[in-house]
Design a protein that fits this description.
Length: 231
């Protein structure tokens, strides 16, 4: 009897122990599942936050680009308006004294108006070439300057027009900075005569046009040359 009782008690104790163990294992598995789900939820939340941040960055970048584009358009519009005003003033300034140049300036303004800045620059350089050649090519002082080695002193200068510009510098009619600017815009026309479909960077058009307008006005308003013997 006692032996049977002990067996029953031992079996009951074992059952209870197994039950407790199974319960604890179940609770641990449950906790692990909850931790796994929490980790997955956290990772998912982080991915969503990252995606939202990327979307916000894209929106901010687009907004910045649109704002920058609007500023550029506003600036371009303002610069174009200034160029048109300058061309109109130049046309009026030359209307009486140089009507043929005034008419060419009017055509340049039309090119600017339809967005053909590169062609407008080429026309401006052509006018300046003509004005420079007209002023100095047959001047006795220029011929004397050339014969005395003026061309040899003009180091790095190529072409008759630039020789004449160097001569103009020696007369004090233009300065060295103006020569450098004119060389820059003249390079556009030089390329145009050797290459097809030469384009001008948009950011260079406005300053090139303004330099050309100033150059035309400067040469057109210079008083007539007189013979110089002591240059």
């Amino acid at each position: 009897m006692e032996r049977t009782t002990k067996i029953v008690v031992t079996a009951a104790a074992a059952f209870v122990a197994v039950s407790i163990l199974l319960y604890l294992l179940g609770q641990e598995e449950k906790r692990q599942g909850e931790r796994r789900r929490a980790s997955e939820l956290k990772a998912k939340t982080k991915r969503l936050e990252q995606e939202q941040e990327k979307a916000l960055q894209v929106e901010r970048r687009r907004a910045d680009e649109l704002e920058a584009k609007a500023r550029r358009l506003e600036l371009d519009s303002s610069v174009t308006a200034q160029i048109k005003r300058s061309l109109t003033e130049l046309e009026a300034e030359l209307y009486s004294s140089r009507p043929e140049v005034s008419e060419e300036v009017r055509r340049i303004a039309q090119l600017v108006d339809i967005g053909q800045g590169a062609n407008a620059i080429r026309c401006i350089v052509k006018i300046m070439d003509n004005l420079i050649t007209e002023r100095y090519a047959h001047d006795l002082g220029y011929k004397e300057w050339s014969q005395r080695g003026g061309k040899d002193k003009a180091k790095g200068v190529e072409g008759a027009c630039f020789y004449m510009l160097e001569y103009a510098v020696s007369l004090g009619e233009i300065n060295r900075e103006e020569v450098c600017f004119f060389r820059g815009i003249k390079e556009i026309r030089h390329k145009d005569s050797h290459e097809l479909a030469v384009e001008v960077e948009a950011y260079l058009e406005a300053p090139a046009l303004m330099i050309g307008i100033g150059g035309i006005l400067n040469f057109a308003k210079l008083p007539p040359l007189t013979e110089r013997k002591n240059l």
